[in-house]
Amino acid sequence: LEGGRFEEPDKKLGLTTLWGNCVTYSGSKLYPREKLSAQLENHASNFNFSAGLERSLFSLSALTPYFQKDFTTTWDVLNHPRFFAEDCSLLKKQLTESIQERDKNPGRLAFLIRKLQFWKGSVRARLYTKKTLENITSQDFLAWHKKNFQAARMSIAVAGNFQVENIVKLLNQTYGKMKWDSSTYPDKTPLEKNPANPKQKAFFYAKQIPQTSILFFAKGIPHAHKDYIPLKVFDYLLGGSSFQSFLMQDIRVKRGWAYSVYSFYTAGSRFGSLGIFGQTANQNVPSYTKRVEQILQESPTLFDEKKLNEAKTSIKNKFVFLYKTPAEYLWLYLSLKWEKMPPDYLQTFVENVEKVKLKEIQEIARKYYHPERFSKVFVGPKKSLPENTKLIPVQIPK
Predict the structure, then answer these.
(1) Domain segments of the chain: what residues?
(2) CA distance linking residue 195 with residue 373, whole number of Å
(3) Given this chain, do its domains 5-184 and 202-393 carry the same CATH topology?
(4) Does residue 73 contact residue 356 with C-beta atoms inside 8 Å?
């Protein structure tokens, strides 16, 4: 469904998550929670919801003999949700309790701080709190369902063992009967706002733990950018290839400063982000931080033709295993359409990886991995942090 968390009123953040979870949990008048749960469990089927920023996803996974029955059942649930008060109150309580877990995992906390600082001032940086969840009423669920469950917002994809004509008939008997109203499509203007993208800042969250989580982050590029594939190859070499990556070999194997250290690059239809994450013993934090900065500074000279060719071979060999299930492929298929990638993107991916040259990798490093582009997040004891670093303390909304 096009539309998601970005449309939520500021005073009712969390509405999309609660709404979708209540739909799949509470069921409909014809299929209330107990009946719906029993049917899905007996069929070993899964009916789930995921609240996204720009889009939200309802998904059904069912064995072939039960697919039609479960499809029509979940159609009824989606078309006539009951929003039973006790069910929705339970889900709200569970979501409220989850807020307390935000600062429990230092690694996840570091990435959450990155999100809040990178997107500061944008709808992408908002988090639900106890107060915003308290503000959500049963009437909000009804209004949100009417707003979101619209034909003009929908994409439907099906993969599995079926006859096409049977699926078409099934869709025409259900979703095909919905009224089309183009005015219900969401206005995505708020998503066009550029990230705050702080540079050379050091954000700090005090936590008395034996290891400090350290996250370097910077702005990346969108999926459709001409540098996308060369940047993916560079990220693979730097720290995205698990144990054989440069970061792992240098930081863990050679120096013994971290059990896990890696780089990442994520891209969407509008923006991208990249960075390096690791956790190290508190006494190693200054040395670790300095070494990562050196690696970024030296990044254009880290790799030669041999390393590049090894990376390209590894990427090509792994490509076929990335999407092993129908669900994974459906999400990939829809994502590529949403991001307006060319129809032959998958067919030409391996070929385009093979075309990447060493000079492109070096240029990618100079363009996107210079240390002055990066900010840092530290989660750990303040006394372990590098001296003479101007720290910006941060808090997490609850």
Answers:
(1) 5-184, 202-393
(2) 14
(3) yes
(4) no
Task: Report the interhelical angle of 67-79 vs 33-43 (nearest 10°).
Answer: 160
Asked whether the beta carbons of 125 and 116 are under 8 A apart, the reply is yes
pTM for the full predicted model: 0.92
Assign a CATH topology to domain 202-393: Cytochrome Bc1 Complex; Chain A, domain 1 (3.30.830)
In angstroms, the CA 370 to CA 293 distance is 9
Q: Which residues of 365-391 are buried (b: 16+ CB within 10 A; e: fewer)?
A: beebbebebbbbbbbbbeebbbeeeeb
* pLDDT at 242 (0 to 100): 75
Give the range among 130-134, 303-307, 330-334, 391-395 with minimum mean pLDDT. Answer: 330-334
pLDDT tens, 127-181? 999 999 999 998 999 999 999 999 999 999 998 888 999 999 999 999 999 999 9
Any idea which architecture 5-184 has in CATH?
A: 2-Layer Sandwich (3.30)
Instruction: Collapse the DSSP code of 253 into the 3-class scheme (helix H, G, I; strand E, B; otherwise coil) and give the result.
Output: helix
Non-local CB neighbours of 147 within 8 Å, separated by 6+ positions:
3, 7, 184
